[in-house]
Amino acid sequence: MGASYRQDEGQEGLSVTGLDFCAIDFETANSFRGSPCAVGLARVRDGQVVDTATWLMRPPEGVDDFDAFNVMLHGITPQMVAGEPRFAARLGDILDFVGDLPLVAHNAAFDVGVLRDACDASGLSWPRLGYACSLVLARQTYDLLSYSLPWVAEAAGAPLDAHHDPLADAAACASIVLDLARRREAATLPDLVAASHCYLGHVGGETWFGFHGTWSGKGPLPSANPNADPGHPFYGREMVFTGALASMTRAQAWEVVAERGAIPAAGVTRQTSILVVGFQDGRKLRPGETLSAKARKAADLRAKGQAIEVMPEEDFFQLLAM
């Protein structure tokens, strides 16, 4: 797979007028997310895939070892990238191709995480981009046994024959979004996101806010995302909230931590790992008390040896952005 750039014409059946975005897929050299060795991109204008690009690259220096497992998945070897620019030099090509379009990726937490971690490893600032996740959007629309890319691509009518080829994966992601837009009768990406009860993510400078769906506040709490990044500090941990958060509702907080792979819970129990403490309304506390019932129970369980982390809101948002 050499560096390439081409324009595709006349892809019938894909048109959704007004729908503009750029689908992206990274492949990495090893288990560290910031070790990209290849990227695939598919640019969509007015609901048509109009341009595609794929490039090899060397990962940032110091994180450029190739794991056998990764090579088995995507077939890219150290010899194949030996003459290619490193990520820092390739980033300009990627951003020039994307232009002013929002990104879409299947499991965007991973692909946007690749950008963030590779920039960190290269001493670069994060690029300013809005993005959506076709995995989250698919969960809001399709009823499938699995929401991995091949399954969702099949449901969208775009079977994926070369999974882990970055261009094939990016093209499949684009096809999924176009199918979802038709099903939702959405004319633009923001329309699709809103119709799917989701919020666009954004990254840039030193801030990051993940793409996520919303929870109605009724019925069971949202389930932990099985495809979340296992390296995120919330992954696999049961999380409870007490008090009011400054920038999101309780339902939104449950949804964003579930998307990071955490297990949202309504009350403190022996399974609780983290209690996030927001603003405490004194009118809702017992007379003479400074802690909520959840905070008191967490303190009691900690005194008995349970490893519960009591986290202030500021620390919560800092970790959420990782």
Keywords, separated by commas or semicolons:
322 residues; alpha/beta; eight-stranded mixed beta sheet; four-stranded parallel beta sheet; 11 helices; 33% helix; globular; disordered N terminus
Provide a compact summary of the structure.
With 322 residues, this protein is of the alpha/beta class. 33% of the residues lie in helices and 21% in strands. Helix 6 (149-155) crosses helix 7 (166-184).
Assembly type of the chains comes to single chain
- Mean pLDDT metric: 87
Structural class: alpha/beta
Number of strands: 14
Tell me the fraction of residues in β-strands, as a range: 15-25%
Element-by-element helix/strand order = EEEEHHHEHEHHHHEEEEEHEEHEH
End-to-end C-alpha gap:
32 Å
Q: Report the principal-axis shape.
A: globular
Q: Which regions contain 5 or more consecutive residues with pLDDT less than 50?
A: 1-16
Report the total helices.
11
For the biggest sheet, the summary is:
8 strands, mixed
Strand order of the largest sheet: 1-4-3-2-5-6-8-9
Percent helix range: 25-40%
Measured on Cα atoms, how large is the radius of gyration?
21 Å
